[in-house]
Amino acid sequence: MQWLQSSRARLAVLVVLSTVIWFMPVPDGLSLEAWQMMTIFVATVLGLIIAPLPLGAMAMIGLTATTLTGLLPIRTALSGFSHPTIWMIAAAFFISRGFIQTGFGRRVGYLFISKLGHSSLGLAYGLVLTDLLFAPATPSTTARCGGIISPLFRSVAEAYDSTPEKGTENKIGAFLVQCIFQCNAITCAMFLTSMAGNPLAANFAAEQGVEISWAGWALAAIVPGLVCLAVIPLVMYKFFPPELKRTPEMRQMARDELKQMGAMSKAEWLIAATFVGMVTLWVFGPVLSLHATVTALAGLVFLLVTGTIQWDDILKEKEAWHTIVWFAVLVMMAGQLNSLGFINWFGDQVGASMAGFGWIVTLAILLLVYFYSHYLMASAMAHISAMYSAFLAIAIGAGAPPMLAAIVLGMFSNLYMSTTHYSSGPAPILFGAGYMSLKQWWKIGFLFTLVVIPVFMVIGGAWWKLIGLW
Q: CA-CA distance, 25 to 37, in Å (whole number)?
């Protein structure tokens, strides 16, 4: 397969494959437009994987294809760039630059190291527990991971001199970034209020007569969730270990560095104030009717007005602009797949094939299909909107206990966010940091599905039996 190393050859393969799918007979019940949109989406995602051109270039090709083929008007094709999540992601990138540039991020990193720096595993657990601490009160996972956890992670990695720019990403940064990414999906699944899509799922369940309480969701998720949070860093440490393992000398080094840094500067205090203010507004945003993206943009504006960061600093943050391009295109395509009926059709096909199975087998199959179909999605909200109600109805119709089916589908609406580099708001933020290649990201994302799904189905299943959900 030596010839596939050529970018032109990979592009040619992509064009041929896309053309074949484009002209295949359209399945019954699906419109021609839905099939063609699916073809362009699949071709774009495959292009991101085999990378004949950079990610942004492949995304622009996909966007242009939707208009040249007459599928979408240009205004619709560009609609992804107005999606609030896109600008939440961008603001998180820019604010992270402020954490690093002012030295406040490095200070926080050294504080982490001074407490947990005896091992890279200890640092991973520290970051994961921080995410868990904020999860119940922060329904925007992008805000939580992008605005709180990601700057801390990058500070820790910088303190260990582990950066993609220096070729030292495997020192500790690559290990930490995947621990954060995999565990973020778990913390999202543990509380009704830890991801914006969870209340939406609860509302859909209520429409079918299933009322999910905050305590009921948390009780069901607490055991499999905590098991996953304990196991994931250990498995990552075993099979994808960092170069730095036991580093007891780093704790004293961190203390020495903090002493050398001295008192916090004005810029650091402004960054700290911005951080506390944003966290506060993210927590109380629903009460104040303040969108999480507005909070992020307000934090960015505050840093610009006070001169803590400069506009040139933002222009130089090329990974942020790169991420805006490819993620906006994928969000637009996923939305169009939903609006054109492809996702509903897919759910109907699955439901029809379930006839005759017992409820346990039916629910297990539904959960697996629901989970792995997220490879076609760039938005958890879109996925829940398109498939949750249909899959819940199928499960209840097959005889599954309604509360069990509703809560477990709700939890799985978060678990699948740990799969790809476009599977959730945090995904492009963490992937965009550059610590892992696309191939590594997808490989680890898939392998950990073989850890997380059994934990929730087996250990979770036993726990749900104990508490009377079935």
A: 14
Integer Cα distance of 455 and 464 in angstroms: 12
Q: How many CA atoms lie within 13 A of 305 on its CB side?
A: 7
- Helix spans in 117-167 (H): 120-134, 141-144, 150-159
Range scoring the smallest mean pLDDT among 18-27, 293-302, 335-344, 455-464: 335-344
| Contact present, 242 and 207 (Cβ < 8 Å) | no
The Cβ of residue 133 has, within 10 Å, a number of other Cβ atoms equal to: 13
Backbone angles phi, psi at 201, to 5 degrees: -60, -40
- The torsion defined by the Cα of 427, 337, 382 and 11, in degrees rounded to 10, comes to 0
49-104 pLDDT tens trace: 677 888 888 889 999 999 999 999 999 999 989 888 778 778 877 887 787 788 77
Do 34 and 337 meet the contact criterion of CB atoms below 8 Å apart?
Answer: yes
Q: Tell me, what DSSP letter sits at residue 99? A: H
What is the three-class DSSP state of 246? Answer: strand
SS3 119: strand
Which candidate, 84, 220, 182, places its Cα nearest to that of 414?
182
Q: What is the pLDDT of residues 450-460, one digit of tens each?
A: 999 999 999 99
Mean pLDDT of the 129-136 span: 80
Residue 142 pLDDT exceeds 80: no
Distances from the Cα of 108 to the Cαs of 100, 184, 215, 246, 387, in angstroms?
Answer: 10, 20, 33, 20, 41
Residue 355 confidence class, pLDDT cut points 50, 70, 90: low
Cα-Cα-Cα-Cα dihedral sign, residues 206, 212, 214, 220: negative
* Residue 213 backbone phi and psi in degrees, to 5: -90, 160
**How many CB atoms neighbour CB 61 within 10 A?**
18
Is 418 within 8 Å of 452 (Cβ atoms)? Answer: yes
Is residue 197 within 8 A of residue 463, CB to CB? The reply is no
| Cα–Cα distance, 366 to 389 (Å, whole number) | 12
Q: Which candidate, 139, 188, 185, places its Cα nearest to that of 292? A: 139
Q: pLDDT band at 412, cuts 50/70/90?
A: very high
Size of the chain, expressed as the number of residues it contains: 470
| pLDDT at residue 269, as a whole number | 93
Higher pLDDT, 196 or 451: 451
